[in-house]
Amino acid sequence: MPRRHDPERRQRIIDAAIRVVGRKGIAGLSHRTVAAEADVPLGSTTYHFATLDDLLVCALRQASEGFAKVIASRGGLSDPGADLAGELAGLMGQWLAGDRTGVELEYELYLAALRRPALRPVAAEWADDLAALLARRTDPVTARALVALMDGICLQVLLTGAPYDEAYAREVLARVIGRPGAAPGSPLGPAPGPSPVAEPGSLPAAAPGR
């Protein structure tokens, strides 16, 4: 009997892999568990994905689309007049709102790159794409710092189960961005430079103008 043409089978296998990871974690993922979840022959999974890493690359790329959709739904990131810190804090709040199962799944696949080098280029895409977007509003170095901070805030919320504090996120993001013209050392201004070290027994130098 000729094999039934099933053009959607590859996608169904990817969807099944994401569900398996969501229920059992990365440790529960195998060609056999994915085949059972997708209701396809075991040979179909190995035909489309020779290794589990091949399958995980596709699963991670698909799972990361969730964050990309949240970004696309918020036009403020490309608006030069919008408060960038507020927009980013709101973006994380929208992403973390409600059921966090999808977000946790994204991070589980994302962190799997620690043990699976094949996933690292895909894991880096999320940071690279967001940094490129933010660099249009700031500069490349600040953009990378903002991405790292957002990643850390989200991971802390997920690991501790604490509620997301949007006001806190906005404050710390604003400190990284800084405000043009803000006085050095002000809450949202750039950090002050190192103070000169006084010689033993000497008095501190007077501030200019005093």
Could you explain how this protein is built, in words?
- Helices cover 59% and strands 0% of the residues.
- The chain is mostly helical and 210 residues long.
- Helix 4 (52-63) packs across helix 7 (101-111).
- The N and C termini lie far apart (95 Å).
| Main sheet characteristics | none
Q: What is the global morphology? A: elongated
Average pLDDT: 81
Number of alpha- plus pi-helical segments: 10
* Main structural class: mainly alpha
Q: pLDDT below 50 for ≥5 consecutive residues: which ranges?
A: 180-210
Q: N-to-C SSE series?
A: HHHHHHHHHH
Tell how many strands the DSSP assignment holds.
0
Write a concise keyword list for the protein shown above.
210 residues, mainly alpha, 10 helices, disordered C terminus
List the helices and strands and how they pair.
Elements: H1 9-24, H2 31-38, H3 42-48, H4 52-63, H5 65-73, H6 84-96, H7 101-111, H8 120-134, H9 140-160, H10 166-177
Helix pairs in contact: 1-2, 1-4, 2-3, 4-7, 6-10, 8-9, 9-10
